[in-house]
């Protein structure tokens, strides 16, 4: 399935208001004492979560609002419990826009409605809302809430428009479209579009006629007449901000040509175009139409600009996000600053946010946050794998006059949770050098206050966010802040507290400056001491203090927590942890290596009776040691039983007679039409898929968590995400056998989309040749075979089909390009194939 489409789909569906983990309204300040109980610490915060992608924060009275992509918004009184109040793309009757299609027709004429990448729907992204007391309404009155938005049809053809309302929750009435991108020198159209992209179909000719532009610029176009998006922006992600003199500005743009700014007339809401080309004093591009470039360029990632002026430091701060927004895209937030609203913006090393050339942008900008996990190890308090984020980004910032606090507001995905996303709010602090640093934990009502040095000494989980843009998750390690101001453990150096709460750490020669502050740890469910700091190289580090514990207590904690799950019916290898909390060592010994080894490798009997062995763990830290034993029962292989057989011999019948015949579909599982023919197959005839059709199999074909699927396949072409065999409980719970998947183009079985599982085989089957593919699921164990050879085996595969009437198909799903090529000999089994069965199927097609 197309992951980029999935993330957009999820942004549309949003998960409405989702009650979160209950953690509640915390006290303003609580410093950790090693033995404090939760009751002594104060009330736990209570969070209620929402999914609003690209959230832009605004405060109105005593209420905070976030407005985001795909026409979603939510409100909160405390930045912790959020309530959605919008209805997505509903039209007419849209909460924000009324008759959406008619109201925003001026922008949709260029991009975003039933066109190209938005075919079949709308694409309205990344709005910014604020109260403008100077705006002159059509009736002559002053003051309006202004909503600047973007519509988009491709990665470069977009437009920025604005609408106004007397009420913050709308409805907003369209006023004008201000900036267009993706236009061409001559007549041209995009795939699945009838819109002529020639520049004369934008607002540029009217601006020329009105004397606001000196004319069209030849620099806007490449030699072939296409839009020069390596230099000029995608017109998305508008952000409005006031400078220190009360003048209004708009920043906007994306990864292609970079981020630009334009001044705005507050009375009309319209931008002021430079009119002619030029250069800033420091050599940056000023374009007659697009404005002044302040960041990025050369097709490097960088989007979602958000500029705020901070009176306390006297700087304008430009926040932006690098990477791709999907769970595998490495989204991460950066910050630059400037003395002027239109730049130049530089990072802590003095590097300009505008790239000097076609170079990697990772070294540029102070990194605020990327993928991370405060890992929960065996023996740590709480449950689960810890707390962390994946692809956090597209932030806004609130400087709250009422509280004096600074907040970073963003969307994020989560480790092992696929494309599910939610809004998060973290408090920010200024370090001694005037750079923002982000609290390690989400906001729980805490206030920065004086801390006691004694409360800082102890063990911490430590995160180094680095500078890269990567899908890798930075997992926590252990350090100790010692009484003598040294740092020991996995990272070494020195530390000190300066002033009431300022932190300064020296690690590997780099000086990190930040603060010590209390934060709510949702895993241990207690307030803990934390630190957050940033270096001159723009690297952020975090620490979360652990309770003081003896070696004896830690060994006991690991002993109590250590589990191998259900060991009474084992069918796959066991994951045996080698380490527990704070580097507590765990070693293993097996009573019978032929049954299960000391590394967890399981050897199933070929048939007959089960086999047993005892695994004994020795848990050690310092001079303390405990042992814990587990009896493991390994089940024998049993032949899977054929439940359905679609030989595809000129028809779609199940020769076993248990299930109905398949039916032909169009290019999606739920569409009519399409055509499937038959030709010479691997055995007899095979179904020929034309790349626009599929076969809908009977509902309920699989209804348990022990099943197998096998088929012969001869692709004519390989398209990423295209399915060969597909089964789904619903749009968020599915299993797909894909000839070429999202992991290094591997042939694979994957599942998702709210929780992805990648069963990659390490190879890609060829086109123009027959290959045999089979996979088995047995109580959470997934095994994938290619040509009878096991290529993947993994645990914790999801159970989507037990007790459901799931949908099944060949060659199509709800989202991706249909399969083109031949499929033959589909077999479905009750139970898991044995290795011998899988090998035999690949040798004997009949």
Automatic annotation (TrEMBL):
Active site: 54 (proton acceptor), 303 (proton donor)
The organism of origin for this protein: Paenibacillus rhizosphaerae
Annotated pathway: Glycan metabolism; L-arabinan degradation
Recorded GO MF terms: hydrolase activity, hydrolyzing O-glycosyl compounds
One Pfam family it belongs to: Glyco_hydro_43
Sequence similarity: Belongs to the glycosyl hydrolase 43 family.
Record's protein name: Arabinanase
Residues of the signal peptide: 1-24
UniProt KW keywords: Glycosidase, Hydrolase, Signal
Residue ranges annotated for the Extracellular endo-alpha-(1->5)-L-arabinanase C-terminal domain, each copy included: 440-543
Site label Important for catalytic activity, responsible for pKa modulation of the active site Glu and correct orientation of both the proton donor and substrate, positions: 237
Superkingdom of the source species: Bacteria
All copies of domain Atrophied bacterial Ig, residue ranges: 560-635
BP terms from Gene Ontology: carbohydrate metabolic process
Record-linked InterPro entries: aBig_2 (IPR046780), Abn2_C (IPR032291), ConA-like_dom_sf (IPR013320), GH43_arabinanases (IPR050727), Glyco_hydro_43 (IPR006710), Glyco_hydro_beta-prop_sf (IPR023296)
Lineage: Bacteria, Bacillati, Bacillota, Bacilli, Bacillales
């Amino acid at each position: 399935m197309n992951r980029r489409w999935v993330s957009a789909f999820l942004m549309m569906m949003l998960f409405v208001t989702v009650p979160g983990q209950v953690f509640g309204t915390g006290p303003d300040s609580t410093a950790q004492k090693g033995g404090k109980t939760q009751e002594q610490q104060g009330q736990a915060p209570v969070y209620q979560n929402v999914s609003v992608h690209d959230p832009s924060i605004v405060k109105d009275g005593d209420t905070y609002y976030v407005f985001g992509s795909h026409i979603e918004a939510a409100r909160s009184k405390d930045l912790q419990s959020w309530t959605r109040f919008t209805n997505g793309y509903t039209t007419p009757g849209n909460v924000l826009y009324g008759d959406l299609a008619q109201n925003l027709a001026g922008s949709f004429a260029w991009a975003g409605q039933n066109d190209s990448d938005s075919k079949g729907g709308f694409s309205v992204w990344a709005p910014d809302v604020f109260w403008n007391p100077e705006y002159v309404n059509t009736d002559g009155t002053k003051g309006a809430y202004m909503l600047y938005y973007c519509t988009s049809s491709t990665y470069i053809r977009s437009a920025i428009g604005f609408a106004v309302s007397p009420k913050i929750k709308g409805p907003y009435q369209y006023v004008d479209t201000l900036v267009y991108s993706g236009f061409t020198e001559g007549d041209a159209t995009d795939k699945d579009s009838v819109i002529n992209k020639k520049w004369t179909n934008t607002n540029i000719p009217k601006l020329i006629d009105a004397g606001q532009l000196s004319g069209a610029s030849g620099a806007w176009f490449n030699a072939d007449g296409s839009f020069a998006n390596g230099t000029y922006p995608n017109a998305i992600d508008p952000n409005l901000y006031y400078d220190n003199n009360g003048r209004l500005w708009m920043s906007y743009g994306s990864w292609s040509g970079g981020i630009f700014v334009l001044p705005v007339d507050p009375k009309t809401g319209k931008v002021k175009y430079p009119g002619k080309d030029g250069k800033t004093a420091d050599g940056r591009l000023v374009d007659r139409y697009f404005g002044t470039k302040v960041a990025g360029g050369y097709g490097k990632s960088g989007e979602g600009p958000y500029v705020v002026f901070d009176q306390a430091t006297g700087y304008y701060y430009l926040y932006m996000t690098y990477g791709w927004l999907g769970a595998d895209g490495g989204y991460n937030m950066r910050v630059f600053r400037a003395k002027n609203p239109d730049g130049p913006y530089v990072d802590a090393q003095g590097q300009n946010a505008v790239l000097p050339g076609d170079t990697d942008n990772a070294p540029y900008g102070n990194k605020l946050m990327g993928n991370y996990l405060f890992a929960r190890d065996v023996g740590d308090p709480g449950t689960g794998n810890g707390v962390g984020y994946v692809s956090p980004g597209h932030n806004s910032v609130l400087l709250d006059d009422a509280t004096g606090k600074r907040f970073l507001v963003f969307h994020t995905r989560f480790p092992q949770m696929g494309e599910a996303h939610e809004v998060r709010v973290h408090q920010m602090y200024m370090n001694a050098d005037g750079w923002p640093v982000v609290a390690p934990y989400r906001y729980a009502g805490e206030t920065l206050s004086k801390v006691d040095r004694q409360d800082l000494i102890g063990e911490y989980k430590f995160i180094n966010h680095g500078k890269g843009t990567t899908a890798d998750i930075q997992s926590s390690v252990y350090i100790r802040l010692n009484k003598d101001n040294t740092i020991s453990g996995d990272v070494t150096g020195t530390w000190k507290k300066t002033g009431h709460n300022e932190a300064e750490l020296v690690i590997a020669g780099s000086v990190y400056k930040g603060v010590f502050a209390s934060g709510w740890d949702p895993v241990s469910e207690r307030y803990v001491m934390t630190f957050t700091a940033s270096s001159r190289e723009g690297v952020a580090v975090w620490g979360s203090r652990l309770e003081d514990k003896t070696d004896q207590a830690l060994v006991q904690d690991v002993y109590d927590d250590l589990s191998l799950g259900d060991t009474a019916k084992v069918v796959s290898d066991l994951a045996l942890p080698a380490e527990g909390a704070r580097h507590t060592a765990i070693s293993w010994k097996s009573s019978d290596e032929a049954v299960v080894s000391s590394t967890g490798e399981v050897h199933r009997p070929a048939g007959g009776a089960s086999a047993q062995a005892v695994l004994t763990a020795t848990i050690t830290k310092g001079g303390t040691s405990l042992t814990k034993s587990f009896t493991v029962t390994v089940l024998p292989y049993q032949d899977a039983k054929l439940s359905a057989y679609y030989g595809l011999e000129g028809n779609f019948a199940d020769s076993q007679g248990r299930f109905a015949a398949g039916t032909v579909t169009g290019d999606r599982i739920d569409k009519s039409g399409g055509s499937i023919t038959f030709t010479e197959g691997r055995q007899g005839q095979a179904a020929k898929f034309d790349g626009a059709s599929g076969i809908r199999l009977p509902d309920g074909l699989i209804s348990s968590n022990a099943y197998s699927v096998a088929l012969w396949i001869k692709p004519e072409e390989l398209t990423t995400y295209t399915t060969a065999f597909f089964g789904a409980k619903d749009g968020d719970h599915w299993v797909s056998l894909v000839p070429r998947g999202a992991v290094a183009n591997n042939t694979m079985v994957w599942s998702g989309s709210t929780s992805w599982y990648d069963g990659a085989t390490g190879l890609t089957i060829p086109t123009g040749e027959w290959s045999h593919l089979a996979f088995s699921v047995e109580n959470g164990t997934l095994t994938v075979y290619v040509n009878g050879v096991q290529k993947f085996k993994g645990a914790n595969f999801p159970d989507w089909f037990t007790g459901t009437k799931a949908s099944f198909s060949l060659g199509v799903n709800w989202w991706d390009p249909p399969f083109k090529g031949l499929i033959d000999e589909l077999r479905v089994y009750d139970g898991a194939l044995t290795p011998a069965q899988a090998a035999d199927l690949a040798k004997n097609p009949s």
